[in-house]
Amino acid sequence: MKVVVAHNRYREAIPSGENVIVDTEIGQLREAGVTVIPFQRSSDSIAEMPAARKALLPISPVYGVDAQRDLAKLLAAERPDVLHLHNPYPLLSPWVIRTAHAHGVPVVQTVHNYRQVCSSGLYFRDGHNCHDCRGKVLGWPAIKNRCYRGSAAQSAIMATTLAVHRPTWRSVDRYIALTDKIAAHLTDFGIPADRLVIKPNGLPDPGAPEPLGDGFLYGARLSPEKGLGLLLDAWRRHPDGSLGPLRIAGDGELRHLAEQAAAERADVTYLGPLDRPGMIAARRASAVVVAVPTWEDVLPTVILEAMSTGRAVLGTAVGGIPYMVGTGPEAAGWLADPNPESLAAALPPARAGAPAAAVAARARYQQHFHPDVLTPRLISIYADMSRHAHR
């Protein structure tokens, strides 16, 4: 089996779970004996591009000239069984789907966000969930609200790209929806159910969990949609020290909220931005990992990391989080509505029930998110596409 994995990497200066997930998946496939040929572009390269190439950047989401030329050469030389597309923006463009089909190569795409419809990919703007562009031929609301990179001009290009490539997206041979929420988004977009499969991302097994620490860990980009303000509002509804410690890790525009809470309360510690070893140590010291976004977060890596290391999860019931955490006695933790009252009510049960939920979290990871479960499923998807292509 030979697979080309196409992905436009986000800027490495911005921590991106998607980059990590793609790299991890490539490693798992290679360990399973699949020949993987990465076809990747990085947004970091834009700064070093010559002026002539930079001049073409505005049209690259619609048609990446260099990407199509280079991909065509690669497909002709390697003759892969499948092209697996992740993120095509901005340097690859969805046109890689057409290029692959022109060479008789079927296309599988893992959908990491909502960008078939939404210019930002988040279904979120100005502090609230937004579906204003759903059902529209052209996403005028995205242009009006500068949803892509805060620019009306760039938002116009992205909205145009989505309109132009609506038939392109509908030609993808198999969509991998990370959760049932993404599957519903694609169905609403018009993708037939027989071209959808739900397969989440996973992480390598870190080994047997270490003993639980104490208290709660919140580790995320400190931006409005990640829910730091929501968490602190809920936390302040309990007496100082009654819930154990709350550790906050990360950086961003809401850093001042973390610093203020740490200055006000003895049970809140702001750890600042942490590297990977720092996050591992912070998670080890905690019993419950908190993931409380207010946007429809697709598949937060922080939850995968928590479950794999045997840490309970307290999450908001948005996006893919209910799919990840589960329900009933096998649930990896607790779900709360994204409001302060509901989250405040969930904090004491999470503190008390962390030991049992941590065991369930590790078991849920092993059953649903372990490479031994997910990699064979991905290879099976590739094989099915390859068989159809050669009939």
TrEMBL record:
Keywords: Glycosyltransferase, Transferase
CDD domains referenced in this protein's UniProt entry, alphabetically: GT4_PimA-like
Record field: transmembrane: none
Glycosyltransferase subfamily 4-like N-terminal domain sequence ranges: 29-202
Record bears the keyword Iron: no
GO molecular function: transferase activity
Stored Pfam families: Glyco_trans_1_4, Glyco_trans_4_4
Entries under InterPro entries matching the protein: Glyco_trans_4-like_N, Glycosyltransferase_grp1
UniProt cross-references to PANTHER family, sorted A to Z: SULFOQUINOVOSYL TRANSFERASE SQD2, TRANSFERASE
Protein name: Glycosyl transferase
Organism of origin: Actinoplanes couchii
